[in-house]
Amino acid sequence: MREAKPPRTRTHRDASSDTIPGKAILVIRSLTFTVLMVASVIFFAVLVLATLGLPRFERRRFAFGDACCRFELWLLRTICGLDYVVEGADHLPQAGGILFWRHESAWETFLSFTLSPRPTWVLKRELYWIPIIGWAIAALRPIAINRGARRVAVNQILQKGPVQIRQGRTLNFFPEGTRLAPGERRRYGLSGALLAKTLDCPVVPVAHNAGDFWRRRGWIKRPGVIQVWIGEPIDVAGRSPEAFNAAVQGWIEEALSKMRQTA
User: Fold this and answer.
1) CA 110, CA 113: separation in Å to the nearest integer?
2) Domain at 15-262, CATH class
3) Which of 15, 72, 166, 232 has its CA 20 to 30 A from that of 44?
């Protein structure tokens, strides 16, 4: 994980990429990264699958996943000039916990893997259907839900979430349920708040501006430095799930506003 550093010259999107030569270089770099990303993710997925049926190699499975995500972040920095800094890493849970992430890009799925030794996620079950990559994701035992059956999905989270957190895993939630464009807002789902309330577990909010550099449904990556702010844990005690969601979302949205004002 890359900790916060003194201000750098590219704290926002690099305007030189808007010129015609800049756009051509941007396309070449983004295409190169995409090809290498796909190839390397498949490579690491095969390594993960090779450990199936070997219980004592479970930690190795997560080590391969971590190595994959760190490699993708390195590729982004080296090929696309897209780096990141993290502030507030001391707020991360040491063993088991819940993180709420702003979901703007594919980028934060890479970073989320590197912030704890045994992470887990709530994700859509359709990801399992991707050959090799989806099978490797399944081997890491996330909570895969059918987003079309909300009541069933909530029950899955409330049943499986406590088991995973008690095993010392950090559960990453994207409470909007889908990636959003920068500046767009969507009401949080209640499952994460209900789980936090069931376990009386504070939630750590994570804000970032990755969508300014790598858009949702986009493959172009613009150079710059992504800001990641990790907030203090927000206590669920004494709050309804709706009020708790409002508190977490309020912190994340305020942090994003400050990020973009200073960019």
Assistant:
1) 6
2) alpha beta
3) 166
In contact, 64 and 48? CB cutoff 8 Å: yes
- Concatenating the DSSP letter of every residue in 38-69 gives HHHHHHHHHHHHHTTT-GGGHHHHHHHHHHHH
Domain range annotation of the chain: 15-262
- What amino acid is encoded at 110 in this protein? F
pLDDT at 8: 38
For the residues of 186-243, what is the DSSP string, one character each?
-PPPSHHHHHHHHHT--EEEEEE-GGGTB-TT---B--EEEEEEEPPPB--TT--HHH
Q: What is the pLDDT of residues 171-223, one digit of tens each?
A: 999 999 889 998 899 999 999 999 999 999 999 999 999 999 999 888 899 99
